[in-house]
């Protein structure tokens, strides 16, 4: 499980770095990261919001690392880590399922560049991250 968590941490950090890059005006991959319909963006996040998402992803990486490698019995905020892991697992699984229109496994819009990447990469990645966080959280709660 250690190897899987290390990969998870690296992936979350890379995702965070991409969000930082986009928040400072970078364009690489942005056309594949935002849902569209009829060549119009369905989501147009502000630069501060994109930066905030990057920070959140880095925090998620830290939580994954902590749930696997820290002795949670010695930390004061053990409950915070456990419930954060639970929240993150639910968040990623819900993202994988989607909102039944443009995002997730059950989206209606399937012929855009984003939709293709979402089906092949983004939704499976979110499901995988959700499963990893579910396992980490279960192990943390079982350790009580």
Protein architecture, described:
This protein is mostly helical and 144 residues long. It has five helices and two strands. The chain is 69% helix and 3% strand. It has a two-stranded antiparallel sheet with strand order 1-2. The protein is globular. The model has no long low-confidence stretch (mean pLDDT 93).
Q: Topology of this structure?
A:
Layout: H1 2-23, H2 30-33, E1 36-37, E2 40-41, H3 47-69, H4 78-97, H5 113-142
Antiparallel strand pairs: 1-2
Features:
single chain, 144 residues, two-stranded antiparallel sheet, 69% helix, 3% strand, globular
Number of helices: 5
Overall structural class, as computed from helix and strand content, comes to: mainly alpha
What profile does the largest beta sheet have? 2 strands, antiparallel
Fraction in helix = 55-70%
Low-confidence stretches: none
Task: Spell the H/E element sequence.
Answer: HHEEHHH
- The dominant shape is globular
Alpha carbon gap, first and last residue: 19 Å
**Radius of gyration, in angstroms, nearest whole number:** 16 Å
Q: Reading side by side through the largest sheet, how are the strands ordered?
A: 1-2
